[in-house]
Structures are given as structure tokens and as C-alpha cells.
Amino acid sequence: MLVEDLEKVLNELAPVALAEPWDNVGLLVGRRSTTVERVLVALELTEAVVVEAVTGAFQAIVTHHPLMFAPMRRITDRDRRGTLVSQLIAADVALFACHTNLDGAVGGLCDIVARELGLVEPAPLVRAAAGWKKLVGFVPADALEKVSRAVFAAGAGRIGDYEECAFQTTGEGTFLPGFSARPQVGRPGRLERVNEIRWETVVPSGRVPMAIEAYLLAHPYEEPVFDIYALEDVSIRGGQGRVGATRTSVSLVSFAEEVARVLGLESIAYAGSSDMRLDRVAVVTGSGGSFMEAAAGVADALVTGDLRYHDAERAQDLGLGLVMVPHGHVEAWALRRWVGTLRRALADPEVEVRFSQAARSPWQRVKPMPVSNNGGELVSLFDVEQATGVHTKPAMSAGAQDAVEPSPTYILRTDGGSRGNPGPSAIGVVLENEQGEVVEQLGDRIGTATNNQAEYQALLTGLETALDRGVRRLRIACDSELVVRQLRQEYKVRNAELRELYLQVRSLIQQFERVEIMHVPREENTAADFLVNQALDGRI
Description:
The chain has 15 helices and 22 strands. It is of the alpha/beta class. A 6-stranded mixed β-sheet has the order 5-10-12-13-14-11, sandwiched between helices. A 5-stranded mixed β-sheet has the order 1-4-3-2-15. It has a 5-stranded mixed β-sheet with strand order 20-19-18-21-22, with helices on both faces. α2 (47-55) crosses α14, α5 packs across α11 and α6 (144-153) packs antiparallel against α7. It is flat. It starts with a helix and ends with a helix. Mean pLDDT is 90; it is low at 369-404.
């Protein structure tokens, strides 16, 4: 399968015509001639997703959120988007975006959420514009077959699953050829009356120039007459949001509880009277505040994300209940289920489709963690977590008998060294448990490298070792100030070789529940340093 073949399948599942005018969907980066054997699906493109794609030998990435909306004036490594695009091009990885076109498509994200919530016969909340123009031509009866075939071949006449759709009626046309004209019918200087057929069909807006060219070439007249009309038709199938009936009349609070259960949320916010009865519900994945008026006309409540404080008052004025779901969570939840649809549509057992394991929300949460100080009283520390969309139980109050103990924090000491810079290099790794006991250590030669490359290689090996042992929380002690500051994003990584190692480290770090990294003096990192020297001296 080639990238262009994947593009066709994606356009069938999520037609580009369904995208909102402001959206940017389809093939964004890549060569259509590239062979595709593995496809990675993610909510959005991040450094970690690029690393996952490159190291996992994926040739294409399909994201929900487009990497770029506005045109890019330049592509360099001085900004996030430019860096990601450069990495994709260098690795020959294609990037697709299926955004509002996938939200509104049949079997798309809105459909998936609506059906999982049990809504009966969900239909588009706001139907998409059909994106058609109407071509009207005037053709002699004996030429109609040739003209219609040519125009249909240019992409006209398709409505849903029906092709060659047209309408015709007979009439009389008149014309007076000039003396320099060479008419197919009649003579110059004499008014002619000819029986003709008014023939009309629909044409996708993007195919209008091709349809006109086909019409002109196939028409027998020297000056064929035709009209192009703008239409305001809507699509019967696709459109933004979904609205459907509940299986039974249910209260707002009960339905909100069901939404939380289905989406795997610990809690959920809703606005409106708890006992208000719901018979019809609208669903909009992502940000759906702008659809409130449309929902109020056909539904009792709207399930969507990114609602603001005053949206609740607006909904109250509209008589509409609201259930607010986390934007990223609900889209990732639905996108993961859509992966199976894509896999089946490709119908190629040689092409693997996987949902990204490295994708993370750009948002982080901070929560207080109760711990005991020396006096036995509670103090609050702060634990920064990735907002992955998977909600964990909140910390329980001190003294609660069923309090869940956090995962133990291990200490990882790493060091890398080079004799020559670049020159013969080695790494040292020491993993300790909370009691300071060494659970694993290793030293190894890594060939020729610089000091900084060796430091990153040591860190990569240490992280992999910790993951193999099931470690979830980690405190890293490293004596390379450069590596520590780069990972804290205080320094930029300008060296291309270090950049690749940096991205691999970041990808591994995101697989932990919590990671801290601190710079320590070399004299406090003697255990890892000893292993480096032992390896360089050939003693291990």
C-alpha cells in the first residue's frame, strides 16, 4: 500500500468535504509514493509520537488534531511545528489529519460516542453543506448521451451511493449565427429554432472546472451554452454532532452518571436541574459550545467539552441541560475505538494499524499529597501529573483505613564518559529502591561517542532498566548539568545527534507515572562513575 492509497481510504471514512471551512485536513506532510506497512493513530502530533513512529518503523501517522491550521512561513528547528515537520520529512513519515471531517463522518467520532451512550438512531445535529454546484446545459437530443457521459466521467452527478444523477426536460432554443460563425445547425444570418434538452446535474465544487471542460469538449455546438448555480444543499448523512433519542426517559443527573461510567471518568460536571427529564440528547465531541442553540431546538441536553462558566446560564435560558466532558479524553476515547474501523477499511493484513502509546495531553495537573512530617502532622506536597485523560482516584484523607499507598520511588544514578571526546566511551547505571539498596547495576562500553552522547546513552539504558522492573515513580541523579537542563527544557538541544537521543529519553520518561531529575556533583555520583571507568578499563 502507498500513501496515496491510504489517503483514498481515509477520504472514504472521513470525507474532506465534511471538514469545516477553517479546518486543515488530509495529507499535511509526506510523499504519496511512499510505501506504507505500519500506521500510527494519535490524538495529536508531539515529539513523543514522532519518536514512537520513527523508532517503531511507522511510515504514516494519522492524527485527529491538525499540526498546522495557518500556513507556515518557514520550516526550521527553531519552533515546535517546524521541528516536527523537519523530523517527519527526514524520516519519510507521512502525516494526515482527520479532524472535523472525522467528527462528522458516518461511523466517525460523534457517531461512536452517541451509540456508546445508547442514543437511538443518532442523526447529524447540524448537517454538512453538500459542497455542490449545479451545471445546467442545453444540448441537442442526439448529442446528450456523449455530453452526459463526458461530464459524469469528470466527477459530476454523484449523490451519496448514486451515480449519474441528472434531470432533463425538452424545450426550444433559438439563435442567430453571425456571418463569420460556423454553426453546427442552421446558416449564418438566419434565425434558427432548434429542439434541445435542458440537462442539469450536480458537481462537487472542486470538480467544476473539469466538468465544464468535459462539457465543452463533448458538445457539438461552436458556442455551447451552460449555467453554473450555487446551491445550499446539505448532506443527508454527514454533519457535525449527533442527536438521538434515549432508550427511556431519564433524569439529567442519571444520564450524566451514565456518561461518566461509559467514558471511564471519576466524576463529571453538568448544568441544569438534576431531575429534568431527557428524551433526546445531542452529542458534540471536542468544543461544542457554539452548537447550543442548534441543540436546544431538537434535544433536551447537550454532551460536549470546553464549556465556559457562563455557558451554563446561556443553556438555562435555552432550556437545555449540559453535560461537560474533557475535550481530549472523549476524543482520545473515541479515536481509540475508531482504529478498528480504519483497520477493517484498509482490508490489507500486511498493513498494521496501532493507537499511539506515547501520546500525552499538553495539560498537567497538580494535586496535594498528604504526608507525615517528623511531628506526625500532615503537610502538603505537590505531585505534577500528565493529564492523560485517565482519571485516578484522589488522595484520601490521613488516617483513612483504605488509603492507597503511592508507588515506591526508585533512585536512578547514571553516568557516561568518553576518553577523547569523541573517543572510546562507556556508561554506568545504578538503580536503588527507596531504602537505598542497589537492585541492579551495570557498566558497559558503547563504542566511540562524545561525553554528552554517553550521558544520554546511560540515561536511556537506566530508564529501560527501570521500566523492565516495573518502576512507576523515579528520581534521576545525573552529574551532567547540560543533560539535566535540556530535559528540564531550560536549554535547547541544537546538536542533531543529541536531539535524537533527547527525543528517545523524553519518550521513555512519559511511560512513567512520575519522574524527577536532579543535577548532583560528581562526588555524589561515584557509584555510576566507578562503573564507567571499570568498563573503559575492560574490567567488566
